[in-house]
Write the structure tokens for this entry.
Amino acid sequence: MKTKLTAFALLFFIALGVNAQIDRSKQPKAGPEPEISLKTPSEFELKNGLKVLVVENHKLPRVSYSLRLDNNPIASGDKAGLESLLGSMLGNGTTSISKDDFNEEIDFLGARLSFGFSGGYASSLSKYSDRILELMADAAINPLLTEEEFEKEKTKLIENLKQGEKSIDAISGRVGDALAYGTKHPYGEFTTEETINNVSFGDALAFYEKYFNPNNAYLVVIGDVEFKAVKKQIEKRFSKWEKSVDITTTLPKVNPNAQYTQINFVDLPSASQSSITIMNNVDLKMNDEDYHAALITNNILGGGGEGYLFKNLREEHGYTYGAYSSLRANRYGAGRFTATAKVRAMVTDSAVVEALKEINRIKTEPVDAQLLADAKAKYVGNFIMGLESPQTVANYALNIKLNDLPKDFYATYLQKINDVSTEDIMRVANKYFKPENARILVVGKGSDVLENLEKTGIPIMYYDAYANSVEKPVFTKPLPAGLTADAVVKNYIKAIGGEDNLSKINTLLVNSDVTIQGAPFKPKATVKQMAPNKSYMEIVVEGMGAVMQQSFNGETGYVVQQGQKTVMDDKMLAAKKAEKGLFPELHMEVSSIELESIMTIEGADVYKVNVTNGDVTSYRYYDTETGYLLRTEETAEMGGQTLTTTTDFSNYKEVGGVMLPNTMKIATGPQVLSFETTEVKINEGVTDADFN
């Protein structure tokens, strides 16, 4: 079935990206130099082990509470995801206050309160400090943990995992962590549907009892409070929190760095771009002498728009929207250096080569004095702005405790940043950036990028989306002798119902639930079609109405985005007029189609058919066993961009003697729309008036 959603999705993605433009031609006026004040916290400890740090700040009538459980990293093994499940249930009511009443009171107070497995955060006006502290303590000590809520969170987490199955970011993050740390390490294990299904409600309760306790907990209070008063409040509220048995855990060693530079490749056939991560593990801690120099060194390499990576890969070559690096300290000896970018498939190999060049450049060439000065100034500015956030100040106070830092660590922070020299940059870069022992993780469409990646001369190892070592993927298989594209297309027509049944369909009405990856709302879509080429489509969000509409009546058409109606231009009209029928395979001419190869998509062998329509080329992939259409690929110019859209079809069901896909997933760059059909009407519910 031709849903004609591809162009619609393209327009919708562009509409999502439209933002109010800021006049950047005028430089904003500089404000007054902020006064830096890092007060030493007042401290006390409860008998149950809870350590409390209080920083009085009476500038504003507000107070914040940051609770941190300083447990060692925990590996859950075949029950990975247990922490996430438990964390999602915390902070949603207590044994004495229902979830709705709990959240309603927080809203009424104009407060914030949130929890995760590693702790929680609350803030409010200081006049409500005692009540918000009471609610926070009650949520920590007497959480409302019910099996019903557990099952809801479990279903939600599994659904999120399914949505990320083909996400280039999710795969890159999962495989990168697993290869860097090892799947037995807490930082390297990952959550799957299988591990979530291994978790029972009893596991969650036992996990809470074992690890969510005050033994190693810290509470940082910042704001308009008096030390004596808040101490009494905390003693009253948190003394009831019972101490548990101390748990000693031994962390497994992280994976060693690669013996030599290597590409670790994950084939993602649906990818329209490639994700590149150059990485090596480091042993960097906050109390190391190199720490401040490491921050500036990383900033110069990939800290933003002025970094070496950004200037090369984006500004000079236009490979990507952005390229960045990160150098993370870790008190458990599990730090990591990464350089990352998402690039067009055709330049994947070039981007790898250029990124390595910039990493080697900072190791071998003295940094420009002005660039170093600018990097320091930017870092100092960000540091100063961070002091405006109570959470940042709380983190600073905790860092001193948890990382064995000198008490004046932040008082001397800016001076140590400004003391970093050109020689320090080169020394630190050589110590922590190890391209000679780096894994270059590339997630992308192998059939498009591997041939050129092999030409770099860098050895390539292959992995699946869950970090398992695999053989090099096979992208084409021998075609059966005498098989033609026309035969493949005719087999598809037969498989979904036959030419006679398809020819009797004059109109189609399809309603669908839509999932937009990363969006907090779930729209609904309506698609109406009338032979030969009339179409109407809209996406509606509850409370917002129609956020996107497109209509074509056979001669003219329009698009509505964000309330603005635009008449279709000549190019778009020509494309619409060229469409034939509700099922394009019924009207394909033998001269316009070519059978290219047999490929594999999600474990299924498919025939790849090249379709030419004027000067436009697209690809259609038909299952070799069922004959069903599994995927289409189209490239189009829109909004000044060249965009490739991949549409996957699955879950075929019979409607009126015809097999139609009930699940469609449309990916354009990083944007993904999923459609689940809720209703199909054939030859009813559609009139000519729908397209005017």
